[in-house]
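ok so for the tutorial part 2 we go from a plain amino acid sequence to predicted structure tokens. step 1 is just haveing the sequence, like this:
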Amino acid sequence: RTPLHLAAHLNRPSLISLLLRSGALLAPEDAKGDTPLHLAAWAGHVEAIASLLSHGADLDFLSGRDGYSPLWCAITARHIDVARLLLRHGARVSLKSSGGLTPL
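step 2 — the prediction. this is what the tokens look like for a chain of 104 residues:
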């Protein structure tokens, strides 16, 4: 995992912005194929997600290993506020995981 993954996982929006302004890659995948946006969605961190989205994070990026979208992660983890934020930004509910499941 990168420092950006850690900042997203710990819900540190100001650190996310600093890292991205300093040249960090927006969507690096960790060993499981998750981006910082996926980690923030799993953890329910609305502020981190808002920061990542303001910098252009891809809200429909499918994780490498399981093919989960950030919306899929948020709904599975029952983070309704995160799911609402992603939907307001245009996350697609029709995307399927590698197992053929949609977020809904």
